[in-house]
Design goal:
2 strands
Length: 268
């Protein structure tokens, strides 16, 4: 399943990278192919419904679509995607000669004001309100008490903000404690999370080391400042920022918050 997901995300990333939006100084070496057409706007409206349903299906596979998950995915994400589709609908209408000739009641000034209001609303919800609500909200935990064995089955999930390199960092505490019954020895769970964080750091250190080796080997190459040196500098910045993110966000904030809520639920 993990290999299938990795292949799917890789294919989607390559498809998205095919869309180009060039700056003026990049002409004529870069040809832009980004256009706001009616079918792309229609696809955005379909995606506003299909993408949350797709994410929900993955949660249902692990029986983790409980507690706050329907609110985050079924309502919050769907609303934000719909607002994004509405924004680009207004953008298409304002730039379409056909709609401009119709002399609609909604003028260009009103459309511009609505676009600005939608953009501010989406940014406020996604950057401030959603993160604050996630930090204060409950875990997506379902508790079932079995009368026969008097045991508690736990199913949990949590929502995360999107990010190419930081999503795996945020997922480390969740993956580590997924489907694990809370233990009376939290230090064991904490040490496992630290081990997984160290593993991720080691992986990025090896990628940075490989970039260093190739940059040194091709130091006299004509494309060293086009390919190898920027790659090496980006790897260095990524290692520094990722270490800080893992320590202060994934470990100090995320792990402590999850363990505190679990201990509070079970009265520890």
């Amino acid at each position: 399943m993990a290999i299938l997901h990795a292949i799917t995300f890789t294919i989607c990333t390559r498809i998205v990278s095919m869309v180009n939006l060039c700056r003026e100084e990049q002409r004529p070496y870069c040809e832009p192919n980004f256009t706001n057409s009616w079918w792309s706007v229609l696809l955005l409206h379909f995606a506003a419904y299909l993408l949350p349903a797709c994410i929900k299906s993955f949660y249902m596979l692990s029986d983790s679509y409980h507690s706050a998950a329907p609110l985050w995915i079924g309502t919050g994400l769907k609303f934000l995607l719909f607002m994004n589709a509405v924004y680009w609908t207004f953008e298409y209408v304002s730039n379409s000669e056909y709609f401009n000739k119709l002399n609609l009641i909604i003028g260009l000034s009103l459309i511009k004001s609505l676009k600005l209001a939608i953009a501010r609303l989406v940014l406020f919800i996604s950057l401030i309100l959603a993160n604050f609500s996630w930090s204060r909200g409950p875990l997506c935990v379902k508790l079932e008490l079995s009368e026969a064995s008097n045991t508690i089955d736990i199913e949990e999930s949590d929502d995360m903000s999107p990010g190419t390199f930081f999503i795996p960092s945020l997922a480390i505490p969740l993956i580590t404690i997924w489907k694990i019954v809370p233990s009376s020895k939290p230090i064991t769970l904490l040490s496992q999370i630290i081990t997984n964080i160290t593993t991720l750091i080691t992986y990025h250190l090896f990628t940075g080391l490989s970039s260093l080796i190739f940059a040194a080997h091709f130091r006299r190459h004509l494309m060293v400042w086009k390919i190898f040196a920027p790659r090496f500098m980006l790897s260095g910045l990524l290692i520094i920022s990722l270490n800080l993110f893992l320590i202060f966000v994934a470990l100090w904030f995320g792990t402590s918050k999850i363990l505190t809520q679990i201990n509070r639920i079970f009265g520890k």
